[in-house]
Write a structure and sequence with these properties.
The complex is a heterodimer of chains A (349) and B (334). Chain A has 349 residues and is mainly alpha-helical. Chain A has a single domain, classed as ABC transporter involved in vitamin B12 uptake, BtuC (Orthogonal Bundle), CATH 1.10.3470.10. Chain A has 13 helices and two strands; from the N terminus they run E-E-H-H-H-H-H-H-H-H-H-H-H-H-H. With 334 residues, chain B is an all-alpha fold. Classes of the chains: A mainly alpha (349), B mainly alpha (334). At the A-B interface, helix 6, helix 7 and helix 13 of A face helix 6, helix 7 and helix 14 of B.
């Protein structure tokens, strides 16, 4: 009896690790349970069965309002954003073959930040009131994030894309984007700087149902596309020469994968802001759980990322209540020490 | 290696020209700005000080600013040159290696938790943070069998910078008052700093600059390769430790006065090498002079970009420096 079951179709093929299936099932349960608990906790407390009733429209009116208007969209957003960031990180780490790569370091987040504060600055009138609907802000953030991703990608192009150049240019561009963001923060009134700062830190506060419905298809489609592509990432992890020898179209694959990674991260930051370190941590934890075969790494990373953001958000809105602490504060607080640990671990690479 | 100034006579000549330029820019820095001042008024502020508004601005604001600009520019550039030499990484510099982010982090902790708000206290804390971050990045970057490699060090620096800045962000989100206090400092600026702040770090900067010059011959041997240097009888560890100490003094001293100003440490040593070639006995003084020139000019420009407001000079250096950084990254890394 082998450990793997192989799964083959015309364009898709991957090995299903039986253990990985169990891990995925367990994680799905964990995400659902955490979501149920998280919806119930807060200023107004609800037991899980009250939550379920409210979700399906049998609860009392007050509970239903709280669940449907506020908590459910918010938690759904945490799940989606966490998954998108985590998978974006998993792609980059697989491709760059460096465990420290993540959308935060490639400048994608800061591109979104600059676009967001740029949006707030440009579309404000003399009295600092917005002249267009705030609904457009996610679009601005998304555009900024994706543009930054492309720029990093274009600038590191030189007869192809080398991972080292990609990282370095990401770092350089991040510094520029940060400087410009700070400039815009200084120019405007302090509450705008404060608003921008919350965005940069990352929070799912104030999400509405429409936001979730906009992001959901985006993330789902990209994830499906990625699953189709997953075996190519497996090849890339073996190194350029091996991959090329095995017949991979390195360049084309890299472009497609970068596109998917940028689009996922851009979608997440558009609605949740720059929640940090999720794209870094989640793939690592996932790799510990199921190994680095990309076909299973993607769903597991996504689930772990969802858990991370959901828990960070839960802590942020309950522990310091009535103060709302952005989820990004906690992902950074866990992520930063983890990062140092990773640096230490990768010392011989 | 092609470089512009071959003979040592020409190099000396270059230094004289450079120093003249620095002085001219310092005078220009006193004269140009939101409050326009004539050359004659500037002159009289020194010879016959009369306490008028213009004279107060000159003595209390513009002159310290010009002096600080020159000192900070020189220190950052020399720190960058030393870093690039001992790490053998053409992109090493205080901002990229997380030193500035470390300084910001410590300052924001102090503002948030200990309600510190004077610029003078900021400067000590920044020094501390810079030293702490440099040591941390250096240790993290040199762990492991291969020792210090360019890639590891850069990633360690970027990682620490990302970590420090997200923690900084987190604290600022919870405290809008602190954000207001430190925002301008966080962008890096030499505006509104008193001479006293410069005096308090001057010993460190002085030791750093002189020290850098004194070990420049040793650095020349070291950049050929660590094994060669050891073979020639150099105690490489001692040289590296000395250079690291001077880097902390220079980078810490400048971030203490001016806040995190990026890219001068990357750009200037490359320009210096373009003029002098690879000899560090020349690269270091040229870096100092060119660094002062770059920061003084960027600071003058910063007054005009979004007039009547002032742009932080750190933003300007980032705008100038990033294309250069990208150019180097594309050229040096396969």
């Amino acid at each position: 009896m082998t450990k793997y079951t192989s799964f083959r179709m015309k364009a898709i093929s991957f090995l299903l690790d039986r253990r990985a299936l169990w891990v995925i099932a367990a994680l799905v349960c964990a995400v659902l349970v955490t979501a149920l608990l998280s919806i119930g906790l807060g200023e107004i407390f609800m037991t899980p069965d009250q939550v379920v009733k409210a979700l399906f429209g049998y609860g009392d009116e007050m509970n239903e309002l709280v669940v449907k208007q506020f908590r459910f969209p918010r938690i759904a957003m945490a799940v989606l954003a966490g998954a998108a960031l985590a998978v974006s990180g998993a792609i980059l780490q697989g491709m760059i073959r460096n465990p420290l790569a993540s959308p935060d370091i490639l400048g994608i987040t800061w591109g979104g930040a600059l676009a967001t504060i740029g949006f707030l600055t440009v579309f404000s009138d003399k009295a600092n009131a917005l002249t267009v609907s705030i609904q457009w802000m996610p679009l601005a953030s998304f555009t900024g994030a994706v543009l930054a991703g492309f720029l990093v990608f274009l600038l590191s192009w030189k007869n192809g894309i080398s991972p080292i150049r990609l990282v370095l240019i990401g770092i350089g561009l991040t510094a520029l984007l940060q400087a410009l963001t700070t400039l815009l923060m200084i120019v405007g009134p302090i509450y705008r700087a404060s608003e921008a700062n919350i965005w940069i830190t990352g929070s799912v506060h104030g999400t509405n149902g429409e936001d979730v419905l906009t992001l959901l298809p985006w993330v789902v489609i990209l994830l499906i596309l990625l699953m189709v592509y997953s075996r190519r990432v497996n090849l890339q992890e073996l190194g350029d020469d091996v991959a090329r020898g095995a017949g991979a179209m390195l360049l084309k694959d890299r472009i497609v994968l970068l596109l998917i990674s940028t689009a996922l991260a851009g979608g997440a930051v558009a609605f949740a802001g720059g929640v940090g370190f999720v794209g870094l941590m989640a793939p690592h934890i996932a790799r510990k759980l199921v190994g680095s075969s990309f076909g299973v790494l993607v769903p597991v990373s996504a689930l772990v990322g969802s858990m991370l953001v959901m828990i960070a958000d839960l802590i942020g809105r309950t522990l310091f209540s009535p103060l709302e602490v952005p989820a990004g504060v906690f992902t950074a607080a866990i992520g930063a020490p983890y990062f140092i640990y990773l640096l230490y671990r990768s010392r011989n690479k | 290696m092609t470089h512009k100034l071959h003979s040592s006579n020409r190099k000396w000549f270059g230094i004289v020209i450079g120093l003249l330029l620095v002085m001219m820019l310092m005078v220009a820095s006193v004269v140009y700005g939101l409050t326009s001042i004539t050359w004659a008024t500037a002159w009289r502020a020194f010879t016959q000080y009369d306490g008028s508004n213009a004279h107060i601005i000159i003595i209390e604001n513009r002159v310290p600013r010009a002096l600080i600009g020159a000192a900070v520019g020189a220190s950052l550039a020399v720190a960058g040159a030393l870093m690039q030499a001992i790490t053998r990484n053409p992109l090493a510099s205080p901002s990229i290696l997380g030193v500035n982010a470390g300084a910001s982090f410590v300052i924001v902790i102090a503002v948030t938790f200990f309600s510190v708000s004077s610029l003078a206290t900021f400067s000590w804390l920044a020094f501390l943070g810079a030293a702490f971050a440099s040591i941390l990045v250096y240790v993290l970057g040199s762990l492991g069998r291969e020792g210090l490699t360019a890639m590891k060090l850069t990633l360690a620096g970027a990682a620490m910078a990302a970590m420090f800045s997200s923690l900084t962000q987190g604290m600022l989100v919870l405290n809008e008052k602190a954000l207001e206090d430190v925002l301008f400092w966080l962008a890096g600026s030499i505006e509104g700093r008193s001479l006293a702040m410069l005096y308090s770090v001057l010993p460190y900067i002085g030791v750093g600059l002189v020290g850098a010059l004194l070990i420049s011959t040793k650095i020349n041997t070291l950049v050929i390769g660590e094994d060669v240097a050891k073979g020639l009888g150099q105690r490489t560890l001692l040289v590296k430790a000395g250079a690291a100490l001077f880097i902390v003094f220079l980078a810490g001293g400048s971030v203490a006065v001016a806040g995190p100003i990026g890219f001068i440490g990357i750009v200037v040593p490359h320009v210096a090498r373009f003029f002098t070639g690879p000899d560090y006995r020349w690269v270091i003084p040229y870096s100092a002079i060119l660094g002062a020139i770059l920061l003084l000019s960027a600071d003058i420009a910063a007054r005009y970009v979004i007039m009547p407001l002032e742009a932080p000079v750190g933003v300007l250096t980032a705008v100038i420096g990033t294309p250069f950084f990208i150019y180097i990254a594309r050229r040096e890394f396969k």
